[in-house]
Amino acid sequence: MKRAIGWTLVVAMAAGALWAATAWPRLNDVETGRTPEYPDLQVRTYEAGVETVSKAVQEALSGLPRWTVVGSGTGPEGAFVSAVHETIVFRFEDDVTVRIRRSGGRTTLSARSHSRVGDWDFGQNARNLRELLTAVDARLR
Questions:
Q1: What span, in angstroms and rounded, lies between the C-alpha atoms of 140 and 117?
Q2: Which residues pair with 69 in a beta bridge?
Q3: Strand bridging mode 93-103 / 106-115
Q4: How far does Cα 87 stand from its chain's mean position?
């Protein structure tokens, strides 16, 4: 009986490892509109101006758990916000950069999330961008 339980555990662990190895693309850098493995992550367009969008990004980040804004700025080409997301497991940190530009009467928001450690993020950078974009969309739409 104990031997059967042991083999069941070994098979379950092997199946879990196989699933983890094939469930996510082998990347550690995801950017809106530039990562074909995640076609749902696209550049956002808003009617609001650069300042309003930048403020919405900063407010969204300050309201999300495990996110820290580490920098922001504005210039002639638009604005940017830099943040760090810390994962629950192992406390890995991912760097996230948000670029905000005005063009043709609309404001675009593009974002990039990059892992500091390893070359495979198990989908974490895509989850980071989805969480951020959902929070910003909720404030601006």
A1: 33
A2: 83
A3: antiparallel
A4: 11
Query: What residue type is assigned to position 115 of the chain?
Result: S
pLDDT digit string (tens) for 78-111?
Answer: 999 999 999 988 889 999 999 999 999 999 999 9
In this structure, what token pair is assigned to residue 88? Answer: 């629950």
Domain boundaries, the chain: 27-140
| Global confidence as pTM | 0.85
Cβ 63 vs Cβ 74: under 8 Å: no
Kindly state the tokens that stand for 133.
């974009």
List Cα–Cα distances, 24 to 16, 119, 121, 122, in angstroms: 13, 12, 8, 6
Place domain 27-140 in its CATH homologous superfamily: Kinase associated domain 1, KA1 (3.30.310.80)
Report d(CA 15, CA 130) in Å as an integer. Answer: 28
- pLDDT tens, residue by residue, 64-83: 999 999 999 999 999 999 99
Question: Which amino acid, residue 126?
Answer: A
Other C-beta atoms lying within 10 Å of the C-beta of residue 132 = 24
With contact defined as beta carbons under 8 Å apart, do 104 and 87 qualify?
no
